[in-house]
Design brief:
By secondary structure, the protein is mainly α. The chain has a domain of about 190 residues. It is built from 10 helices and 5 strands, in the order βββααααααβαβααα. The chain has a 3-stranded mixed beta sheet, with no helix packed on it. Strands 2-3 form a two-stranded antiparallel ribbon. Helix 1 runs antiparallel to helix 2, helix 2 runs antiparallel to helix 5 and helix 9 runs antiparallel to helix 10.
Amino acid sequence: MPVAAHAIRGASDFAVYPRLLQIGHVALPTYGALTALALVAALAAGMHFARRLALDANKVWALSLTAVLTTLVGARILVVLSHFDAFTQHPFWVLGLATVRDWWIGPVSVAAGAGAGMLYALAEGMPVLSVADALAPGAALALAINRAGAFLAGIDFGAPSSAPWAVTYRSRIAALWYRTPLGVPLHPVQLYTAAVALIVFALLIWYLPRRGREGEIAGAALFAFGVASSILELWSASLVHPVFALALSIAAVLAGGALWFDRRPTSHRYTASDETPPVT
């Protein structure tokens, strides 16, 4: 059904848009389009904040592309390996299959991308913690855009809810592509996460000029998202195993806290200006 044919059915119903555009038999998924927009926003923000922290913006760009491509390619490879029998029979079908939602593929591919980015930074002699500080605000912005796309598409839906702001999905395409339950009021947990990500993004922008040492911005982001994700999990119907999700949240809180609350003396302080920070 074209996007224009969808309609909102009452205050609690939501006209889900899994397809942003349909031309003949070719469909542009809303989630994929907004995820691409999120990546562009993250790359642009990373370049901007790299300059403000006196980093080589070109190297930060290359590092970011390395991490993104490793994540995307790694996810496809993991899909093939985990569904190899189906791949041998329908290779192109499996590579583009929207309903493959194995809970472990996303976290593992993201970890692979982060690892590739870190290896690139070490190989180029880049300050890893400062690079993480430069990329943290863009990552928060990208998450906000990505979660908005997830809400519009009906992916990563929330748990059943009787709240007046609960949403009810109606699209059969969303049910087919993402196994979204239809006719059931759900927590709009994707919007909860997007709101948290925007708040964290704003706080990181505010905090950047006050950074006392490398790693503080990244630590604050990890700590905030670790705490928030552990709370948001209460309203989520995520396919990620609850124990694994809790372990990720705890790891983020511990790692973020170690970076954020590190009060060892530092010999310099970077400022968030467009000029090269003074060296003392």
